[in-house]
């Protein structure tokens, strides 16, 4: 059941992050939105453990996953924006 909950929470976090930070060149689709939320949760967990907000073995919740997904979208926008500019 843990993997199913991870996918569900990842999808919800990805949808909320894309709603908060819309963009033209962001990844779209069910699978990419879910991956965005899951990667956001990993980013939030890593940053939270580095800053001391989470203990080792403790993961980020929905709010942390949304914040992490927004960070991932921001970084993706910077990287994708640079590669699409004409030289």
Short description:
It comes from Bradyrhizobium barranii. This protein is an all-alpha fold and 87 residues long.
Spell out the blueprint of helices and strands.
Elements: H1 2-20, H2 30-51, H3 62-84
**Element-level helix/strand string:** HHH
% residues in beta strands: under 5%
Low-confidence sequence ranges: none
General form: globular
Major sheet, described briefly?
none
- Please tally the β strands and state the result: 0
Distance between the termini: 49 Å
Can you describe this structure?
With 87 residues, the protein is mostly helical. It contains 3 helices and no strands. The protein has helices spanning 2-20, 30-51, 62-84. Helix 1 crosses helix 2 and helix 2 (30-51) crosses helix 3. The longest helix has 23 residues, at 62-84. It is globular, with a radius of gyration of 14 Å. It is found in: Cell membrane.
Features:
87 residues; mainly alpha; 3 helices; transmembrane; Transgly_assoc; transmembrane helix; membrane; GlsB/YeaQ/YmgE family stress response membrane protein
């Amino acid at each position: 059941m843990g993997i199913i909950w991870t996918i569900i929470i990842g999808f919800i976090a990805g949808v909320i992050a894309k709603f908060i930070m819309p963009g033209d060149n962001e990844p779209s689709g069910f699978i990419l939105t879910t991956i965005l939320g899951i990667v956001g949760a990993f980013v939030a967990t890593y940053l939270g453990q580095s800053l001391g907000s989470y203990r080792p073995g403790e993961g980020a919740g929905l709010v942390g996953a949304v914040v992490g997904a927004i960070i991932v979208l921001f970084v993706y926008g910077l990287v994708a924006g640079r590669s699409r500019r004409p030289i």
